[in-house]
Every structure is written in C-alpha cells, then in structure tokens.
Specification:
By secondary structure, the chain is of the alpha+beta class. It has 26 helices and 19 strands.
Length: about 625
C-alpha cells in the first residue's frame, strides 16, 4: 500500500489548503481559481510535466503493461521534456496552444505517452475556442479530453491510465455543486484519484501478478499533483520560469534516455514498436480497421490536420504504405523489440556492432550476429521513409520505375544517432559503428561527430569506403571476430586490414536514375541514352564512384563485368563474394552461374540491394561484391 499512503499524504496537505481558501474567488493574490485562462493553463501544464519527469525512474520500475518493457517513465518524461522545451509562452496565446499541440505529437511515445498526448491536445483544442473557463466549462473540457483519449485507443482496457482519467472526471462532476471554483474541485478530486490508481492493481491479471499499479496511470496522478499544487500558488509565483529552471536542472543532472530498452519480448508476438507522425489529406478513421489488422497496441492521436500513430507490428513498411495513401509521412520511429530484448536479457558479447542501411546483409545474418541497424532516410514525394524498415526493396523498385520523381536520400538525424549510441552504451562496453563510404554520404561524418559528443572512448566509428554487399562482407568479418571473443583493439585492426581489400562491381541498366539524383551530369546522361550505354560502376580507393566499363547491350555488359571479375580474381584472389540485385532475380541467377564457374565457390549470400542504394542504380541493377586476399589497388 506504499503508493496509496504516499498519495494520501499529498492529498492531506492539499485539502487543508483548500479549506482555508473557500471564501475568496479572485485569481490574483493566490486565492481560489474560479476562472482559468490560457496562460494559467499553460503554467499548470508545465508544472505537471516537471512532476512526471521527477518520477521517471519510479514509473519505469513498475511498468509491466502492455509489455514488460520498463519504458513508461522514459516515454512520459520525453513527452513532458518536449512540451517544456517547445511550448514557451508567447502572444498571441493561440500560437502557444498550437505549439503545445505540436510538441505533444512530436514528443509522444509508447501507449501511455500517446494517450497523454491526445488528452492535452484535446484540452488545447477546447481552449482555442474558449479563452477563459469557468468551473463547469473546465469540467466539460476535461470530460471531452478523456473521451477523446479513449477514442485514441483501438482496444481500450480498464485498469490503465484511461481508467484513472475517467475516475478523475467522474469525481469532479459529482463534487461540482459543493466545491468553490476550479482549484477546490481539483483538490477535492485528488484523494479519489489515488484510490482509483490503487485499484488498478486488481483490474488486470498482469498488474495483480506483479502487485503494482499501472505505470501510465501513476504518471497521470503525478501530473495531477504537479498541476494542483501549482494552482495553489499566487499568480506572481505561477510562472514558466520555474518550470524552465527545473527542466534545465533535470537536464544537467540526468542524461535523457530517449528509448528505455525492452526487458521482455515474446517471440510469438510483434517485433517492431512503430510510430508515425502524419499530415492528413483525408479522414484517418476509414483506415483504422486496416491498421488494426497489421498489429496490436494501436493508438492514434491528433486532430483532422495532423496525427500520430503507435502500433506494434511485424510489417512497418505496410503501415507506412497504407498511411502514405492518406497523407504525408512526416516522421517515423521504429524500434526493434527483438534486438532490444536480446541486448538486455541475453547478450552474446560486450561489443555492439552497428551499421547503417547501406550495408546489404540478409536479415537472417543480421539476426544471427545481432547486428544493430541505423536506417538512412528516403524521401519520395513529400513523404519520408526509413530505409529497409518502412520502405522495403520488394515494393520500392516498382515505385521507382513508375515514378518521374527521384527519391532523395539523407543521413540519419543527429537525434536518432544519439539515441542509438546511448541505447547501446547502456548495455555494451564498446560500440563499433561501420558506415557507408564517407565520399557518398554524410552518415560517417554525422556519426563521428555524435560519437565525440556522447563517448569517444567507447564508440569507434569507421568509414568503410564502400557500400552495399562489400560493406556487408566487412561487417560480417567484424561480427565473426566479436563472436569469437576478439578485443576492441583486435576488431579495429581487423577493420583497418579488411577495408582496403574490398571491391564492388555494379552493372547499371540505365544512367537515368543517377542523372535524376545528380550523380551524373545531364549531358553525360543524354549521351549515354543516345548510345544506349550500359555502364559498370565501382568505387575507387577513397570510396568515390567511378565508371570501369561501358557497353551498348545488357548481355555484353554482363560479359564485361564477368571478365573484369576474372581479372580481379587472377590478380588479387577473391577470398569471398556476394551477389546483389535491384529487382532482377532472373539476371542475378545467370550471374551466379558465371561467378561460380570463375571462382569455384558459391556466393556467401544473394540479397536485394537496399532502396537507398537502388535509388541511384535503378531497377534491374546487379552487383558482385568481394573481399580479396590481397589489398585492392583499384585498377593498377
């Protein structure tokens, strides 16, 4: 009963204050609040937010629903930090409320965070239509907000944050005729809210089993406590400066954990915890049932202009495709709960291996060696996707061939890199981070910069000077060495030895996509098109693109690449190789037979090319990637 006793101690101090202030009804001077305006509401939200932040670790420790992942406190704290940081008060007051709504969408994470976000967004919408609220109007706002929080969840369950929200409004409604003003109504409701929180222990089997209250519900009670205690203060003391100061102090004292890791994962359940921020073109609700069929824990928040979707699924790419038909994908976050579970519960090594999505390794090998993925971003039209996660090769190449718009790729954001590094450092001694050629992408430079800021002594960032399957082979060497127990210094030496031994040849069916992407000048593209040239693309020693050969026909192009492969094998000895293709399964089978006849060995694997690479190579491209027994002197 520890939770209940602590809550009632808070309640007792609040109640005594309310009894002494029933006679006054004026906002100024710290007496009972009968009217609530937008500024007062904003100040109270910030103080409630700080109360949640202070209890982050407590909420993490009791989080067992909907999955035993220990992240409710981190998710709610991240939401509250985003609100404090991004919704500073300014005039006109309507702009502050809009900023607050936007911060809720950007900062909401996890089930409870999404529900909490919808609750505050609904309050903001109500206040945008009402500058000041009397007691009954305030109650109407709260009822409407709780109703919309329920509607945000595809399958609401009692015994959660929703239950406590509903109990809070019910108690205020029952007390409205005997309380004086908003302040007293809030104070009088607090004790019953604490009882409702304690009752969540018996409302779900999983809470009863662990003898804990629902973490999200307790987060809401902490929020109310900060909200109510702040409303007692005189107006002169009720300012956002204190909230801002508390936030800065919190930031200095605690390194923010953006993604608290999964401590429980069901192999028979869904693998990816996915979140999508959307700008709507049409009504979202018709696709709600379709989304529900693709996963569980579905929560949707927002309004008719912008919204956020949370869902556990095995198919985040199908979710993205469905949502892209209804609007613009602004932002996505997809956490691999399986990989997180392995990292926490069953680590195989003390060194983490991280790659970006320009590394083409089959998922089976990624899983076998527990390699972590940092997706690059691809923009198609106005929508943004996560390479290999919300945009898969199987569907990408048809989209590429049928579109006149060239997809644009970009490196991961500093925030996503920081989050990934901090996540890994929580559970590994060292992190080896290997990336696509720095001459082709800013990913290596971005990761190097973040690594210096986070922990340069434990994060080791490498420029592979290659991409795709050649990068995959280098990463695989490092993964096997880590599994064999190699030290971090041995891994670093291995990578310095292996990177110069890489080689890749890519047979490109057309230069159209390279021209559209700016990698080949329009003039050269026109000449190549007139001559029907089929180039062979490779990389030099610095990782820059070069043309190694040009032919007029696809079959002769394949023959040219195979002859080059034969020369490389004779000169440097191909130790191992892989084959890759961009939607060209028949061509890659022909290539396999030819490469096997030359090398006398089967390819280590055959894989699709990632969309971020295939966007330039185009549909139909095929590739041979190699590691050589000797250093590759690139054309000597």
């Amino acid at each position: 009963m520890k939770c209940l006793s602590v809550s009632f101690r808070h309640y007792s101090s609040l109640s005594c204050t309310s009894m002494n202030k029933r006679r006054s009804r004026v906002i100024q001077g710290g007496s009972i609040v009968e009217l609530m305006n937008r500024r007062t509401f904003h100040d109270l939200i910030l103080c409630g937010a700080n109360e949640v932040i202070r209890h982050k670790e407590e909420l993490n420790s009791i989080n067992v629903f909907p999955v035993n992942d220990g992240d409710t406190g981190s998710n709610l704290a991240y939401l509250m930090e985003t609100i404090i940081r991004e919704s500073r008060w300014k005039e006109p007051s309507s702009e502050t409320l809009k900023q607050l709504k936007s911060a809720c969408l950007r900062g909401s994470r996890g089930n409870s965070g999404m529900i909490f976000s919808q609750f505050i967004i609904s309050m903001c919408n109500f206040l945008l239509n009402n500058k000041e609220l009397k007691q009954r109007h305030f109650l109407d706002m709260c009822e409407q907000s709780v109703k919309q929080a329920y509607q945000a969840v595809a399958s609401p369950q009692e015994g959660t944050i929703l239950t406590v929200m509903k109990a809070w409004v019910r108690v205020m409604r029952s007390n409205v005729d005997r309380t004086v003003g908003i302040q007293e109504m809030l104070i009088e409701s607090y004790g019953e809210v604490c009882i409702s929180l304690e009752n969540t222990k018996t409302q779900m089997d999983i809470l009863r089993k662990h003898n804990v209250v629902d973490a999200g519900a307790k987060g809401f009670v902490h929020f109310l406590y900060g909200f109510i205690t702040e409303i007692k203060k005189p107006k002169a003391e009720r300012t956002e400066s204190e909230a801002a100061y508390q936030y800065e102090t919190y930031q200095q004292g605690h390194e923010m954990e953006i993604n608290h890791l999964i401590s429980h994962y069901d192999d028979n359940g869904y693998r990816y915890c996915s979140e999508f921020l959307m700008n709507w073109d049409t009504d979202y609700f018709p696709v709600k049932e379709e989304l529900a069929r693709l996963g569980d824990s579905l929560v949707s928040v927002g309004d008719d202009k912008q919204g956020k979707i949370h869902i556990h699924t095995n198919d985040p790419d199908q979710i993205a495709d469905l949502l892209a038909q209804k609007g613009t994908l602004v932002y996505q976050k997809v956490d691999d709960m399986r990989r997180q579970h392995e990292m926490i519960s069953a680590p195989k090594a003390s060194i983490a291996l991280l790659v970006d999505s320009a590394c083409d390794l089959p998922q089976q090998l990624m899983d076998e060696h527990r390699i972590h993925l940092l997706p690059l971003q691809i923009q198609i039209g106005n929508s943004s996707y996560l390479d290999k996660v919300t945009l898969k090769p199987e569907s990408f190449y048809d989209k590429l061939a049928s579109s006149d718009i060239q997809p644009k790729s970009s490196q991961p954001s500093p925030e996503s890199i920081t989050r990934k590094y901090r996540e890994l450092l929580n559970h590994y001694d060292q992190v080896v981070s290997i990336h696509v050629s720095g001459a082709l992408s800013g990913t290596y430079d971005a990761c190097s910069t973040v690594a210096k800021q986070v922990n340069s002594s434990r994060i080791h960032v490498f420029n592979s000077r290659t991409l795709s399957g050649a990068l995959g082979l280098i990463v695989l060497q490092a993964a096997k060495a880590i599994a064999a127990g190699a030290s971090i210094e041995e891994i670093k030496k291995l990578l310095r030895d292996q990177i110069p031994k890489s080689e890749i040849l890519v047979s490109v069916p057309t230069l159209k996509y390279m021209v559209r992407g700016g990698r080949v000048s329009p003039l050269k593209g026109k000449v190549a098109a007139w001559l029907n040239m089929k180039p062979i693309v490779s990389l030099d020693g610095e990782g820059k693109s070069v043309l190694y050969g040009k032919t007029l026909f696809r079959k002769s192009n394949m023959g040219k690449m195979i002859r080059m492969l034969e020369q490389i094998h004779q000169k440097y000895d191909i130790a191992q190789y892989v084959l890759l293709h961009a939607g060209a399964s028949e061509e890659i089978e022909r290539c396999r037979k030819l490469t096997e006849s030359i090398t006398g060995a089967k390819p280590l694997y055959i894989s699709d090319v990632s969309p971020v690479i295939g966007a330039s190579a185009g549909k139909g491209a095929i590739s041979v990637a190699m590691l050589l027994a000797n250093d590759n002197r690139r054309g000597d």
